[in-house]
Amino acid sequence: MFKFLFKRLLVLVPVFFGVTLVAFGFIRALPGDPVEVLAGERGVSPQRHAELMAQLGFDKPLWQQYLSYVGDVLQGDLGTSLITNRPVVEEFFELFPATAELAICAILFAVILGIPAGIIAAVKRGTFIDQGIMSLSLAGYSMPIFWWGLLLIILFSNILNLTPVSGRLSFLFEVEPVTGFMLIDSLLSDEKGAFKSALHHLVLPSIVLGTIPLAVIARQTRSAMLEVLSEDYVRTAKAKGLSPVRVIAIHAFRNAMITVVTVIGLQVAVLLAGAILTETIFGWPGIGKWIIFSVFSRDYFAVQGGLLLIAVCVMAVNLIVDLLYGLINPRILH
Amino acid sequence: MTSMTATTSSSVRRQQWREFWFYFSASKTAVVGLAFLLGVVLMAIFADIISPHLPAEQYREFAELPPAWMEGGQMRFFLGTDYAGRDMLSRIIHGARLSLIAGCIVVVIAMSIGVLLGLVAGYRGGWIETIIMRVMDTIMAVPGLLMALVLVAMLGPGLVNAMVAISITYMPSFVRLTRASTMSEMNRDYVTASKVAGAGPIRLMFISILPNCMAPLIVQGTLSFSTAILDTAALGFLGMGAQAPMPEWGTLIAENRDLMLSAPWTVTFPGIAILLAVLAINLMGDGLRDALDPKLKRS
């Protein structure tokens, strides 16, 4: 197990340095020299320009700049935001729980609906139900989610008046951030109705962000189940007279789980990319909206740091998924 | 002699097409997808003739007109007009051109460079392979849309830069597929035979090996085509892709976003266009996979 973990970590090392190179190259590859870019349209006097170049280390040779950048990164220093003047790491982790909460709810939505839908489609293969589920999931897979979000806002917030349009919590409430997860914080606070408000705000964004993962999970669960259902041990279990539910849930699904867990793990990157669009539409104060804001306000240190931190998150989750295989399938010994 | 070989190879090719069409047409939905896509392609080609108005023409006195079947709508502007009184239907028809071309170019760039790198990695192995594959791993470590966004921020917003950025994020899947198939084809007898016959590495890679790796690449290409349209639209929506007066589908949604509540049709129809086009390509892709994937082929 530890040997496996070590091996996997070893593979991640070059990828990590690759991402630092991309993040490092990002600011240097912007047209114009970095200080001019950072100064924007206001411009700087030549004297101040030279001062800033020296202060930010841009006057040294590239390899020296890269080494000192990596040194800073390894010590957890990802630079300072040009807009707020706060460390990028601090900003990132302050906003991270909002994105995590949204992503977790979205993946729960996708798993809770997607796995049963896939199983039902596989069991009822070729029927009207199967075709219906598969058509819907293909439509979900083809969905431009930014448009889907706007459509749901028009329908649920404007016409039916059921859900709020944006944000995480109604302005009527003030909740002390303890964990950063609004659902938990609102429960911890004394404010009555805050939890309900937080839940209301979370529904639409979770559906929007969870739509593509839902479609993918349903499709993959179906094909994994179809493969497993044709195995001999499933026939044996049926022949023994076990109830269909037992055969499907225990004998078949447990073996289809490997594929399903892989697919869920792969959705993390999809979720983080989707969060950029979803958070922009719903005014959700998370990483995605922050990155977009940083790109537009030319806060390049924030973009650079965010890029690196998000890549590290994706790598970490992929590693965890790999380790989970061993728990689900004891035949895979690490 | 030469003419005989030519006839045989063309009849073999016809036979292959017939077999392919037999498997592909077994799926009704795939045929529907293909037909719809052909319709969209024709619409894009003949956009100037079909569309009732010029996409940029502003009929100020008819701004925010609802679709024809709603109260206050006019047949002249079948899908209604936007804030500047431009005809939505004409804008969407012209948008098909931009979206399809963008999707095509992304796939062509990603596929040609990806296949080349994958062939070299699989054929040469060694340090070249290690470098290529680690670079691809790096691209894959960052979620696609974020990578594209950062690249566009670097290159400057615009449709062309968005296409380049998206194709870079699609490259790894082509490299991996090509490398894997190349590695499994390398040990086949026909490759050894052509090596013994004195074929050079270029001939081996492109003429012997590549045609036998095409099936999964075609399927991946089709699926990338649909996601490329989605991603181009997403970048357009975020304001980093095609820029405002251009009637690209994602940009159309972005420029009418403020009208979402007062004139919902301006946002609804471009989205339906994206959804249907992407759905048609995906239906076709599913059919292609069933027809080309030898593992699933019903014998």
Quick overview of this protein structure:
The complex is a heterodimer of chains A (334) and B (299). Chain A has 13 helices and no strands.
What radius of gyration of chain B results from the CA coordinates? 23 Å
Distance between the termini of chain B: 35 Å
Strand content of chain A: under 5%
- Count of helical regions of chain B: 12
Helix/strand/pairing category of chain B:
mainly alpha
Count of runs of 4 or more consecutive helical residues of chain A: 13
Largest interface: A-B, 42 and 40 residues
User: Could you state the oligomeric state of the chains shown?
Assistant: heterodimer
Low-confidence stretches of chain B: none
Q: In one word, what is the shape of chain A?
A: globular
Helix content of chain B: over 70%
| Helix and strand element order of chain A | HHHHHHHHHHHHH
What's the average pLDDT of chain A? Answer: 84
End-to-end CA span of chain A: 5 Å
What this model shows, in words?
The complex is a heterodimer of chains A (334) and B (299). With 334 residues, chain A is mostly helical. Chain A is 75% helix and 0% strand. Chain A has helices at residues 2-29, 34-39, 46-55, 62-74, 88-123, 128-141, 145-159, 182-188, 194-229, 232-239, 244-282, 287-296, 300-328. The model of chain A has no long low-confidence stretch (mean pLDDT 84). With 299 residues, chain B is mostly helical. Chain B is 72% helix and 0% strand. Chain B has helices at residues 2-24, 28-45, 47-50, 88-124, 126-141, 144-155, 159-186, 189-196, 201-209, 214-238, 249-255, 265-292. In chain B, helix 10 (214-238) packs parallel to helix 11. Chain B is elongated.
